[in-house]
Amino acid sequence: MVVDALSSLQRRAVVRDGENCDSPRVKDQAGPMAAVVIHNLMETQYGDLGTGGIGDNQLMAAYHDLYNSYAPEDARYLTLHRGHCLFLRDDEKPLITGDFIKSASFTGTVNELADEVKALRDTGYDEVTFILLPHHPDMLDDWTRVIDKVG
């Protein structure tokens, strides 16, 4: 099978003027997917991925403590993946900071994201897909501004 197209799937947030990655709107939109990075590192029974490149040892230790508190032990995955990709659970909200969202996701200002999309294009990607959350219809306008900037 020959692949003749490259596609990148993105679900993050556009940081608006006067906002940062700790704003409630940005955390609501980008936090769930950033949390998935950590979710994938918790279930070590499927192979220990270490820190997955996350350099924040305190964050990893705190999330391991949270994960280990889930019961029953043999069904921790049910709690871990509740809200997966859709929303942050109340127990993980304090752990998913703006700094982590910025480092673990495709989140930034219109100009920053347009530059990232251009870089994808310049390395051979033919398509970038943005997943929009149904409870955030304004995401369409935000991403339209990014694509307009890409040209």
Summarize the structure.
This protein is mainly alpha-helical and 151 residues long.
Q: What report would you give on this structure?
A:
- The protein has 151 residues and is mainly alpha-helical.
- It has one domain (7-150).
- 45% of the residues lie in helices and 5% in strands.
- It contains 6 helices and 2 strands; from the N terminus they run E-H-H-H-H-H-E-H.
- The protein has helices spanning 24-42, 57-68, 76-80, 98-104, 110-122, 139-150, and strands at residues 7-10, 127-130.
- The chain has a two-stranded parallel ribbon with strand order 1-2.
- Helix 1 crosses helix 4.
- It starts with 6 loop residues before the first strand and ends with a helix.
- The mean pLDDT is 87.
